[in-house]
Each structure stands twice: as structure tokens, then as C-alpha cells.
Amino acid sequence: MSKPDPQETGIHSVEHLLAHALAMEVEAVERYESLADQMETHNNREVAALFRKLAEIEKLHVDNVNDISEGHTLPHIAPWEYSWEAPESPEAPSVSAEGLHYMMHPYHAISMALEAERRGVDFYDRLVAQSEREDIRKLAAELCETEREHVTLLEAWLSRFQPPPKGWNEDPDPPLLQG
Description:
- The chain contains 5 helices and no strands.
- It has 179 residues and is an all-alpha fold.
């Protein structure tokens, strides 16, 4: 499947790019907060705290995009009209069945966040490479650099954790499902 051309998918102005950037960051904040809530429900406090920290970092990105947006009128874009390659924004952490588990370790949470940030970098890199407009390329490069910095931070965090041992997700007292 080929990647969509940003010119054909609606990112044809700085304002559209800023609207996409803001949506990406807001969705990431909301997803991390939701994941933190889920981990707290399952008494996985360490990972819950990590997801809360990730949400705080993403809130700084929201603030950054809002600052850059000052003086611009951002368009309202319906959720189904965003130029994502998937149903969710590139930077939203995936909540696939393989990636999310109530007994997950910090290693998993950071890996999940790192994957999302790399998708954000790819999104902006494509805009830099494909946009015909210099102002869009310049802003996309600036936003991409912010995402690259976050990737570097997450790689450093990940290096502090070992992958969990085999069987990390085996629960000796699994939840009782009543039917």
C-alpha cells in the first residue's frame, strides 16, 4: 500500500498542518491518560505513573503547537478527514491486543511510546519530502525535530530497562470471567 501524498490528502496549508499537529498531540495525551487509568485499575502503578509522565510530555507538545498556531486560524477537520494512514493519528500509542496487557512492564510502555513517536517523525518527514510548499516543509521540519528529540529521550529511557523475562504475562491468579 502506498503512502498518501500530503498534497492530495488535505495538508495544503500551514493551518491544515497545524490542525493535524494539534490533533496528533491531543490524541496522544488522551490515549496516555486513558492507558494510565487502565493500569491504575489493574494496580499496575509503575506503568500508570509512566503513562501519566508521557501524557505530561505530550501536553508540552500541545502547548508548543498552540504557541506556533498563534495568529493562525486553524480549520475544523472532521475526525474522518485527517490525513492519517490508519484510523488513528500517527502519534497515538497503539492499543492493539499484542501491545497492551494489564501486567505490562515499563519496557513495554516505553516501547509503545517510542513506536508512536517514530510514526510521528515519519509523518512529518513525508511532508518535508513531498510538500510543494516551502512554508509547509519548513514547519514540518520544525515539528519533526521536536518528535526526533522525543524519540531520543524515549530511547534513553528504554535503555534503562531490560526486556521482561519470558512468561512475564502469566498470571497465577487470572481474572475470573463469569458468563
